[in-house]
């Protein structure tokens, strides 16, 4: 209970913020082929075995996201699977990521999830599907939704996916030391305030954001449901909140 008190105090002291994304140039998706066993999964040729792993994880991930968002996908999701670093860097400007949803709502998985981070495949797939689900409704990283809510909601939907490398205890300890998600900053059209704006690592930022969103849900799930459905209907976050 005391931990929640620390977290709630952080919320009350800082208010809310709005965010916006920076559009990126689109490239034609012409180097993937549909997986024979599941047309929702498109793979870089030669990496069909990786695609099969994704296909096996996909049904549960979709169900998890739809439950967390209280609504089905607007369009059947498609997942692009890069088996090589060259493929991933062609479409994602930050190739160190293990997965990403880029402009035009393209969910692209990195070869990392078929290698050193293969244990994160299901959780990161779910996290990115949560972004894709919302993107189908309001567009890619809409400017009326705070980054902390956007990432916290996706991490919550993925049961911690995206925030695995920071524990709850580490997140609370950072808050007690004054290192917390900065909810006072507001983004401009060409600038989004991510983890660094709060003096946090990405995983700390995601974990604290997830705890914030989880706390909101735990207080009154009916109101939380109304909030996220309003967001998906493109309501302004401040008004819906």
Protein architecture, described:
This is Peptidase MA-like domain-containing protein. This protein has helices at residues 2-14, 48-69, 85-91, 121-138, 147-157, 168-176, 202-219, 221-232, 237-240; strands at 33-35, 38-43, 79-81, 99-102, 106-109. The protein has a five-stranded mixed sheet, covered by helices on one side. It has two domains: 2-21 and 141-240, no CATH class; 33-138, no CATH class. The longest helix is centred in the first third of the chain and has 22 residues, at 48-69. The chain is globular and about 50 Å long. The chain has 241 residues and is an alpha/beta fold. Strand 1 and strand 2 (38-43) form a beta hairpin.
Number of helical segments? 9
Bulk shape: globular
The overall pLDDT average reads: 86
Give the percentage of residues in beta strands.
Answer: 5-15%
> Strands across the major sheet, in which order?
1-2-3-5-4
What structural class do you assign from the helix and strand content? Answer: alpha/beta
Protein name: Peptidase MA-like domain-containing protein
Give a quick summary of the entry.
With 241 residues, the protein is α/β, with parallel strands linked by helices. It has helices spanning 2-14, 48-69, 85-91, 121-138, 147-157, 168-176, 202-219, 221-232, 237-240; strands at 33-35, 38-43, 79-81, 99-102, 106-109.
Topology diagram in text:
Blueprint: H1 2-14, E1 33-35, E2 38-43, H2 48-69, E3 79-81, H3 85-91, E4 99-102, E5 106-109, H4 121-138, H5 147-157, H6 168-176, H7 202-219, H8 221-232, H9 237-240
Parallel strand pairs: 2-3, 3-5
Antiparallel strand pairs: 1-2, 4-5
């Amino acid at each position: 209970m005391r931990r929640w008190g620390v977290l709630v105090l952080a919320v009350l002291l800082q208010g809310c913020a709005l965010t916006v994304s920076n559009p990126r140039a689109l490239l034609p998706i012409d180097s993937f082929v549909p997986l024979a066993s599941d047309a929702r999964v498109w793979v870089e040729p030669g990496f069909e075995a990786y695609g099969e792993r994704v296909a096996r994880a996909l049904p549960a991930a979709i169900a998890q996201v739809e439950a967390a968002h209280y609504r089905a996908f607007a369009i059947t999701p498609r997942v692009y699977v890069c088996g090589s670093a060259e493929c991933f860097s062609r479409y994602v400007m930050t190739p160190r990521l293990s997965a990403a949803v880029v402009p035009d709502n393209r969910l692209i998985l990195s070869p990392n999830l078929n290698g050193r981070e293969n244990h994160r495949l299901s959780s990161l797939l779910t996290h990115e599907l949560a972004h894709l689900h919302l993107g189908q409704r309001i567009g890619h990283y809409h400017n009326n939704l705070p980054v902390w809510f956007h990432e916290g909601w996706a991490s919550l939907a993925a049961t911690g996916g995206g925030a695995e490398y920071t524990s709850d205890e580490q997140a609370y300890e950072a808050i007690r030391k004054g290192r917390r998600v900065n909810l006072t900053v507001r983004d401009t059209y060409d600038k989004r305030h991510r983890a660094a704006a709060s003096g946090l690592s990405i995983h700390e930022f995601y974990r604290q954001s997830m705890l914030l969103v989880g706390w909101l849900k735990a207080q009154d799930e009916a109101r939380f449901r109304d909030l996220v459905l309003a967001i998906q209907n493109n309501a302004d976050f401040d008004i819906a909140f």
